[in-house]
Amino acid sequence: xxxxxxxxxxxxxxxxxxxxxxxxxxxxxxxxxxxxxxxxxxxxxxxxxxxxxxxxxxxxxxxxxxxxxxxxxxxxxxxxxxxxxxxxxxxxxxxxxxxxxxxxxxxxxxxxxxx
Amino acid sequence: xxxxxxxxxxxxxxxxxxxxxxxxxxxxxxxxxxxxxxxxxxxxxxxxxxxxxxxxxxxxxxxxxxxxxxxxxxxxxxxxxxxxxxxxxxxxxxxxxxxxxxxxxxxxxxxxxx
Lengths: 115, 114
Description:
The complex is a heterodimer of chains A (about 120) and B (about 110).
Chain A: E1 4-7, E2 10-13, E3 19-25, E4 31-37, E5 43-50, E6 53-57, E7 64-70, E8 73-78, E9 87-94, E10 105-106, E11 110-114
Parallel strand pairs in A: 2-11
Antiparallel strand pairs in A: 1-3, 3-8, 4-5, 4-9, 5-6, 7-8, 9-10, 9-11
Chain B: E1 3-5, E2 10-14, E3 19-21, E4 24-26, E5 32-39, E6 46-52, E7 60-61, E8 64-69, E9 74-79, E10 88-96, E11 101-104, E12 108-113
Parallel strand pairs in B: 2-12
Antiparallel strand pairs in B: 1-4, 3-9, 5-6, 5-10, 7-8, 8-9, 10-11, 10-12
């Protein structure tokens, strides 16, 4: 049973399109994240939510909009896709508050290719 | 803001040898966690080892151990008896409880040579 699952795993689309990536965690964690990994493998945080509340919003273009319907789900919607959006997007979850350690559990990543 | 620096973009060692990956970080926080994550070609992010900043004892997990020097803000990873399956990107990461953010270094690509 996958702890953090994200779909789709691969996404190929044209510039200007809108796409979404979905993420679900069954670990009971209170915090979920989106990270972007570029072609040089650098991992950069984009957003985090704690119990549906936006906690971290890094300097990400407003074409990117996260949505957390409940604490087990965090989806990422991207409008007007650009070539530079091509990357692997990782969803992760963590138990941060209370007895949390800050350890992140990652999904398998979604490779987005914009043509 | 915290920064994490990995000064070795690539390393390679012979199978069964020992290798040490370097990591330094910069923070004004006193309470934090440090991690090493491994990313094999499958691209899955896998936790290798964790260190709590308030613990002086270095963490160990089987063949993996760290050298945590809090005053020097250094957190190196030692892999003993390296195996072919250790070939991967290794990322050092810093968790700040203040802003609940995990910040990654730029990674070290490690290749184990048969």
